[in-house]
Amino acid sequence: MDKNKKGLNTICTHVGEVKDNEYKGATSPLYMSTSYAFEDVDVKRYPRYFNTPNQEALCKKIAALEHAEAALIFGSGMAAISTALLTFLKAGDHIVLQQILYGGTYHLITEEFNKWGIEYSFTQGWRPQDFEDLIKENTKVIYIETPSNPLLTITSLSGIAEIAKKHGLISMIDNTFASPVNQNPIDFGIDVVIHSATKYMGGHSDICAGAVASTDENIARIFSLAKNLGGSLSDYTVWLLERSMKTMGIRVKAQNENAQRMAEYLDSHDDIQKVYYPGLPDHPDYDIAKLQMKGFGGMLSFELKENLDALQFQKALELIKSSMSLAGVESTVLSPARTSHALLGAEERKRQGISDALIRFSVGIEEPEDLMADIEQALKKTKNAGQMQKR
Ligand SMILES: *Cc1c(COP(=O)(O)O)cnc(C)c1O
């Protein structure tokens, strides 16, 4: 039986279940043991070896979802990212990374890589040519994020895969924003797919985890470092994550639909300056997004008209919460300039096109009419406050 041939929601619900042979329960039993038999066993199991029954089961589900041969799960998205990067990079090597990166990844590179003697270059843009231009003799890895945070730029997956193959490099993607529901980079030739499972895989803002999917050979190499670094995930969290992922397909599809509705609503709104969403036909890379994504995702960003105070607007929202993280079933907003991208400094933010008025919107599964009503009342309050100040 080829597990990859099953449909999305069947994989989400069933692949990687731990069979309850004793009681025939409907869900996977949870094995919390940190100590398993050592003598006379085929597999020596231990949580930090990433091979407890629940860990192995969840890895099968994630591999099936990403059309990969194998997967590993980690204690956080950053544990997955750092372990994957360090597997394929050593002192003297060089990596080309996308300019617009998740903040934690940017800090890992800029704060730690010099210590380890690993060279890095950030691209100026997000087109495949921007990456190829920076490849050197010692380059080993190309690292991308598409759709990116917070401007939702789209990079051609097949374009990057082609460059990586031509130069004998490992291509890696942080696929968190798309989720496996909307984008399967391995189908386009990308080598290593990474997720912060804290986001769409968990989906309820109550789990911190990470995942990597790739070939058996690459996952064996990543595992070999992972067991030494020790970033494994507790079985209780693994079990919760398996449960959450059963509904990932329907959650993310609802979020795609809501985000599309909200993007169109904001795009035609008199008080909104600009909307960044790959599902809008005037997005500069709409055609590439349509080619490589099955849905355009639940993330969008927008800017208010100049006369409106973005912070005041954010504070006036009632249903939509201000929140650091993203991808939960509840809608949240954040100001990248004041939070995730604050440490970049004003000049670098300007260079990347991240304005102070930019608001990142993680669209949840609420009724879009209620989200629109919340935005309307917040805009009204923001305008009234603006007029009061002028008096
Ligand atoms: C949150 C996030 C990460 C980091 O994941 P953690 O689980 O917080 O360690 C990495 N990449 C992207 C795109 C993210 O949104």
Number of strands: 12
Basic shape: globular
CATH class of the largest domain: Alpha Beta
**Termini distance?**
72 Å
CATH homolog superfamily of the largest domain: Type I PLP-dependent aspartate aminotransferase-like (Major domain)
Pfam family, one: Cys_Met_Meta_PP
GO molecular function: cystathionine gamma-lyase activity; pyridoxal phosphate binding; transaminase activity
Organism: Ulvibacterium marinum
Protein name: Aminotransferase class I/II-fold pyridoxal phosphate-dependent enzyme
How does this structure look, described?
The chain is an alpha/beta fold and 391 residues long. The chain is globular and about 80 Å long. The structure holds pyridoxal-5'-phosphate (PLP).
Any chance you could write out the topology, listing elements then pairs?
Elements: H1 8-14, H2 53-65, E1 70-74, H3 77-88, E2 94-97, H4 103-112, E3 119-122, H5 128-132, E4 139-145, H6 157-167, E5 170-174, H7 179-182, E6 192-196, E7 210-214, H8 216-229, H9 235-245, H10 248-267, E8 272-276, H11 286-292, E9 299-304, H12 310-316, E10 321-322, E11 332-334, H13 346-352, E12 358-362, H14 368-390
Parallel strand pairs: 2-3, 2-4, 4-5, 5-6, 10-11
Antiparallel strand pairs: 1-7, 6-7, 8-9, 9-12, 11-12
Bound molecules: pyridoxal-5'-phosphate.
